[in-house]
Amino acid sequence: MASRTRAWTRIDFDRDGKQVGTFNFNHSVHRSAYGVVQVPLAVIKHGRGPTVLLMAGNHGDEYEGQLALTRLIRTLDPGRVQGRLILLPMANAPAAKAGTRTSPLDGGNLNRVFPGDPGGTPTEQIAFFIGDVLMPLADVCCDLHSGGSSLEYLPAVMVQVVGDPEKDRRAMAAGRAFGYSFTVILPWGGPSGKAMDAAAGRGIIWVGGEFGGEGRVTPAYVGLLDDGIAGLLDHLDVVKDPKPRSATPTRLVTAGGPERIVYAAEAGVMEPVAKLGADVKPGDVAAIMHCPEIPDREPVTYRFEAPGVVLARRAMGRVEPGDCLYETFVDYVGPLA
User: Fold this and answer.
1) DSSP per position, 82-137
2) Domain stops at, among 202, 221, 253
3) What's the pLDDT tens digit per position in 146-198?
4) 6: pLDDT strictly greater than 90
């Protein structure tokens, strides 16, 4: 069945070789009555093998994946490919150009609007094209994130499990191929507006992860991501990696309840105490909140409510009520361990 998308591309998904272009949709504004939004898109195809959809810039201020995919597009010789790579280095292009989490065109958070709308806002149209045109072509979807401007994440691969033993086994194997110290297990909970749930709804293996953040580029994290992508593509036999690889131990963790996140209750300046990768227990100090506006006021101590391992902390010093200060994960206990 043909897609209802109003977007178009000149890329031929069935043609061998490397094609770099855009997909486009109409966006009429004061300065450009017949203008379009252009989203960078590349396809590298050769031989026979699986199709892997690799996307970054789902949130525009998450840069590590954007750099890793643009480097892969520039440097990968199509002759090394056995299958097809579909690459979106800046999926929410308006947000990525602005360096913001959400789109300046409509305020849309791409990772909250799937399956999108072919006649909706710009962000909804991007989501619809990805979910209705690109995902059906793919066997595996790899969605690369980071903490963006507000958070720093310890690099961790994430794997969605759907309750199908064979699909979950394949997803776990794909996640382990990244070779990271932490693997986050994300059980499918039904439609949520996220890309991973759109993939699950189409029966596609989804892996992703969080790699750095702080609104900047950390070269070590980008290098780690380059290596992780190479491991994934080697595991899938799409691009064999000449570098020898060995099994890397990984700690399996998963999200707990709402008590796993430390939220700010007042405005101030956060002094972080807990380190990334630390195992914490209830009562351990997470951060100290200062109030320079009232310099003689005693700072407020924030503590963890539940045990877990710290994988994310706030990158910005200035805090408002409701901001996430820390995120912890609990050890996974289940059939995939």
Assistant:
1) SEEEEEETTSSHHHHHHT-SS-TTT---GGGSTT--TTS-HHHHHHHHIIIIIGGG
2) 253
3) 999 999 999 999 999 999 999 999 999 999 999 999 999 999 887 789 999 99
4) yes
Task: Give the tokens for residue 107.
Answer: 């305020």
Query: Which domain-ending residue is among 253, 269, 303?
Result: 253
Q: How far apart are CA 282 and CA 301, in angstroms?
A: 13
Count other C-beta atoms under 10 Å from residue 277's C-beta.
12
pLDDT digits 0-9 by tens, 21-33? 999 998 989 899 9
Those residues whose C-beta lies under 8 Å from the C-beta of residue 84, and which sit 6 or more positions away, are 13, 43, 44, 45, 49, 50, 51, 52, 137, 238
User: Which residue segment(s) compose the domain that 123 sits in?
Assistant: 8-253
Alpha helices in the chain (DSSP H): 64-75, 93-98, 122-129, 165-176, 195-201, 219-235
**Number of residues assigned to the chain:** 337
Identify whether 219 is preceded by a cis peptide bond (ω within 30 of 0): no
Residue 243: pLDDT over 90: no
Asked whether residue 143 is assigned to any structural domain, the reply reads: yes
Q: What are phi and psi of 310, to 5 degrees?
A: -80, 115
CA nearest 217: which of 206, 226, 229, 228? 226
